[in-house]
Amino acid sequence: MTTPEQSEGDRSRDELLAGEYVLGVLSQADRLKVEARLARDKSFARIVARWQENLAEFNDEYDDVMPPANTYSKIEARLFPQNSFARELAAAGSWWNSLLFWRGLAFASLALLITYVSLQSGWIGGGAPSRSLVAQMAGDEGAAISLLAQYDAGSGRLQLTPVAAKTADQRSLQLWLVPDGGNPAISLGVLPQSGGGAVEIPSDLRPRLKDGVTFAVSVEPFGGSPTGQPTGPVIASGLARNL
Amino acid sequence: MATDDDIAALIGRLALRDRAALSALYAATSPKLFSVCLRILKDRGDAEDALQEVFVKIWQRADRFAGAGAGPLGWLVAIARNHSIDILRSRKPVADSIEESWDIPDSARDPETETVLKGEGKRIDRCMEELESDRAGAVRSAYVEGLSYQELAERHGVPLNTMRTWLRRSLLKLRECLDR
User: Fold this and answer.
1) What distance in Å separates residue A19's CA from the closest CA in chain B?
2) Using the 8-state DSSP alphabet, how is residue A165 labeled?
3) Which range scores top for mean pLDDT: A79-83, A190-194, A234-238, B59-63?
């Protein structure tokens, strides 16, 4: 093992070690030893840098290859998890996402689906259709929950029914209203731990519940988001449409 | 194609936590860096995961970019190569070699001159030509594909120790040639 105090006799050995490191032929344990030395031994670091510069010409052998299209959004989601609510929202429901994308084509079938689900669940009775909003909030496959939300403008109640809920222990599910156009999200309240139940919409928010807004549910610390904005992963989201 | 100056400027903006610069840097360099990961890891899924890690590291280390040495693209490629090789080596361990006895002769150079050499990068090709072609090939594929001594030995049909000697002597010859 090379010592930090190098003698003249160690120089060619360092030269080789640096060259082997830059070539990449060393074992992982040896690579870690070299990197530890790099951090504390400036003259050794210069030798490594010189090999890096010398051999960089081989980089021409790497012809451009396009990475998968969604890689960048994954990088951003990893680097900026707190500030990417809108992006997470988009990632939460892949099928929903694609419906949004294709909504010009698919809106009719979507409306049918929502109406069907609503009728099946018996929520749509004799009330005036224009006074109700319904959104199905779906997560990724394997997501913890999928919710159906129905808002009755007459009573100001937003009824939520879990389609499939798994327990989220010591966590709360918080419901958000995302105005048309994105951030900032407005909290509509923390859901009962069952994931179902109803949320009373404050009267000042009621005018904002209209066609085109998005409902979303995020996983938050027990009791709800400490910041007033979503902090946990968005597990379900959906666009609301007039029936 | 972004110039070195463009890339260096983007890295500088990353150090200031400029997210737009990250997006621009990704657009300019991700095909090259993905190629590096793919060539070494040889699997698209692994290479994509590695590319994500690489850009996370670039974001985190941007303030340590010195602008010297192999240039800004070389700095980015080095991060991608090192990350990919680390994955490869931890997944498929190879024998350690630092502890072994070294039987390579001292090349006896003046240590003071070596740090002031500049603009030598373009000479590697000429120096590679001075190596026997199979050894030059081993050096190149070690670098480009991240092959271990063992894999190089198998590819060239020589014993492991022979390959070690090949590469070490080649490195010394290259250093001697580059210093001339």
Assistant:
1) 7
2) E
3) B59-63
Chain B nearest CA to A119, separation (Å): 43
ipTM over 0.85 threshold: yes
Q: Specify if B97 maps to a domain.
A: no
The answer on A192 and A157 residing in a single domain is yes
> Burial, A40: exposed, middle or buried (Cβ in 10 Å; 0-12, 13-18, 19+)?
exposed
Contacts of B52 in chain A (CB under 8 A): 71, 74-75, 78
Q: Do A17 and B98 touch (CB under 8 A)?
A: yes
B74 and A71 within 8 Å at the Cβ level: the answer is no
CB A96 within 8 A of CB A113: no
The number of distinct structural domains making up chain A is: 2
Q: Is-contact A240 A215, C-beta < 8 A?
A: yes
- The CATH number given to whatever domain includes residue B75 is 1.10.1740.10
Asked if the C-beta of B69 comes within 8 angstroms of chain A's C-beta atoms, the answer is yes
Same domain membership, residue A97 and residue A172 = yes
Residue B100 within any structural domain of the chain: no
Q: Do A223 and A134 belong together in one domain?
A: yes
Residues A133 and A15 in one domain: no
For residues B82 and B14, membership in a common domain is answered with yes
Give the gyration radius of chain A's Cα atoms: 28
Give the closest of A26, A43, A65 to B97, CB-based. A26
A10 CB-side CA count, 13 A:
13
Sheet containing strand A241-242, edge to edge, reads A197-200, A157-165, A145-152, A132-137, A241-242
Q: Residue A208: give its domain's CATH number.
A: 2.60.40
Contacts of A74 (CB under 8 A, 6+ apart): B52
B59 CB neighbours in chain A (<8 A) are 79
Q: Give the structural domain span for B128.
A: 114-179
pLDDT in tens, A8-67: 557 788 999 999 999 999 999 999 999 999 888 888 988 999 999 999 999 999 999 999
- Give yes or no for a contact between B104 and B172, defined as CB atoms under 8 angstroms apart: yes
Residue A2 belongs to a domain: no
Task: Tell me, yes or no, whether B122 lies in a domain.
Answer: yes
Q: Which domain holds residue A204?
A: 83-242
Nearest CA distance, A65 vs chain B (angstrom): 5
Q: Is B103 on the interface with A (CB under 8 A)?
A: no
- For residue A43, list chain B residues with Cβ-Cβ distance below 8 A: 115
| pLDDT of the residue at B65 | 83
